[in-house]
Amino acid sequence: MNLHEYQGKFLFAQYNLPVSKGKVIFNASDAEDACNEIGGSKWVVKAQVHAGGRGKAGGVELIDSAELATKFAEKWLGKRLVTYQTDENGQLVNSILIEECTDISKELYLSAVIDRDSQKIVFIGSSEGGVNIEDVAKNSPEKIIYQGIDLDNLNNQEDAISIAKVLRLDDVQTKQFIPMIENLLRLFVEKDLCLLEINPLVINKNGDLHCLDAKINIDSNALYRQPDLQEMYDETQEDPQEAEAAKSDLSYVSLDGNIGCMVNGAGLAMGTMDTIKFFGGNPANFLDVGGTATQERVTKAFKIILKDPEVKVVLVNIFGGIVRCDLIAEGVVAAIKEVDIKIPVVVRLEGNNADLGANILSEANISIHSINDLEEAANKAVELAK
Amino acid sequence: MSILVNKETRLLVQGFTGSQGTLHSEQSIEYGTNIVGGVTPGKGGQTHLNRPVFNTVQDAIKEEEPNASIIFVPAKFCKDSILESAEAGIKLIVCITEGVPTIDMLEVKKRVDALGVRLIGPNCPGVITPGEAKLGIMPGNIHKPGSIGIISRSGTLTYEAVKQTTDLGFGQSSCVGIGGDPIPGSSFIDMLKLFEDDDQTKAIVMVGEIGGNAEESAAEFIQSNVTKPVISYIAGQTAPAGKRMGHAGAIIAGGKGTAEDKIKKLRESGVHIADNLVSIGSKVSEILKS
Fold this sequence. Notes:
The structure holds 2 protein chains of 2 kinds. Chain A is an alpha+beta fold. Chain A has helices at 5-14, 31-38, 66-76, 133-139, 157-166, 171-190, 227-230, 240-247, 266-278, 295-306, 325-339, 354-362, 374-385; strands spanning 22-25, 43-47, 60-63, 80-81, 91-92, 96-100, 104-115, 120-126, 144-149, 193-204, 209-211, 215-218, 251-254, 259-263, 285-288, 313-320, 345-351, 368-370. In chain A, the strands form 5 sheets. In chain A, strands 7, 8, 9, 10, 11 and 12 form a 6-stranded antiparallel sheet that branches. A 4-stranded antiparallel sheet of chain A has the order 1-6-2-3, with helices on one face. Chain B is an alpha/beta fold. In chain B, strands 3-4-2-1-5-6-7 form a 7-stranded mixed sheet, with helices on both faces. Chain B has a 7-stranded mixed sheet with strand order 9-8-11-10-12-13-14, sandwiched between helices. Chain B starts with 10 loop residues before the first strand and ends with a helix.
């Protein structure tokens, strides 16, 4: 789960990390008060969306009057911001972060991720900040450090000093940096993060380190023990169908094609999409209906798939493991009747009692193409989608 | 031979009396697995499925001498359950549960490695040696004792590979689902080593998917350490970048972990690629008969 910048900075502040004085607003009418409360004569206004590249897209501005803050908020609130990281519809802006202005003398990069290879939390630091780190990695890899952290030794200053060297920090900044790394690590572990990125981490005109941005991704599997973070979930930043599927505990990702897919198991769901493509079709979605594939879940899955107007045919691919295929077939038939599906449905059942399942499907008196062989089933779906 | 589990396996079930634990223990017993008992804190002294229930793994070890455990407890208790078992001296732990926080796994992985314990999973279908022992949730009836070793990050995809190799008459030596999480207890490489050393295994099927670079690391390992033919299928060729495809670990992040890169690397390392899901079995057939 992603957080907004203002939510990330709220966490940063809790962990004594240096962030700008700021205020988030949800109504344009609050902009002026926010500026006054922050004080000063220059502010940065930033549209809050779960995507990078906001500056280039016009979602970040430097302003020198409170009226301009109001204007910016009026311009963006309720609109969609399109950046190079979003799709063509962009992301809805429903909040604006107003911050005091920071005079920047240098931009750096710092992030932390869980590295699957070394099975450690790894900090990534670079003296090149404010830019796409993948480009730096490609063009000047010598400017990047990857520092793995030993979880049994969170107060290891040497790691911080190694990173500080690559960031070319002076002695004073290094002294600020050591507790900063310690606090970021505590935040990472205590809040169950998957990713934490500060781009840029800046050195301001006074020579102090300062976090100018905050990108945070939280491990969804750990939300049960992070109730305060769970409350930060912003459904408007998600694809509406994906958000609705998530509510029913179904894993769904929408794609561009016209063959709807309902599959049990994430791996098989990906494999089914690939198979459709292999035989010349285009999958409309990824959907893992889960191991049990009960009537209730199948019904919900059909409803979600059919919300996509592009879908011309649905391919159901279930490998009945522990669950018997005849029970699944009954669920599928009942779901198709309940949802009143008008487009063709191809069902492939394999595994326990697959024959009984196929019989139930063919006797159901509804238009189902029951095909036991996956290759044939995929080909049928491709043909029907044309 | 086979790997990890066989007739000698004495299995302890953690989360024995819960609904998942009960359902799958029944199926495993029916398959012929020697389940010697289970653990459910607070229910020690009871009998479940005609087997003793213990409060702790320690108690179970004293009475029944299990040499493997399988875990069905909810995700939030998995860390403690795995560590309890590992510290009590169980050397093979299979964790079926999905949804274990990654931070927990960082700690668990370090600990089990230090203790010399082999952990399979979490978020996996388990391990089976056909005809001998089933430690997991896979349908037993699609398996058949034979010569193919199967390793996979996905449950239902493993079943596809199993079904295809059974239908073609090859059967399986053992099948291991290593799980779909970012920090799995065991890697492809760990299992490749075991299959390479196993006489019964004539060829290895490795089913991978997008995300991370476990397949790339495995490719490097295979090139210099595996003499047996390896056939691989990689799922997620049509998956969009930046989206988690069901499994916590199945995500293309920062342009890395694509199916294309994995397939390229595997091919370069001499691995035979099944270019689609339905041709895993026929690819095995082609390689073994050539």
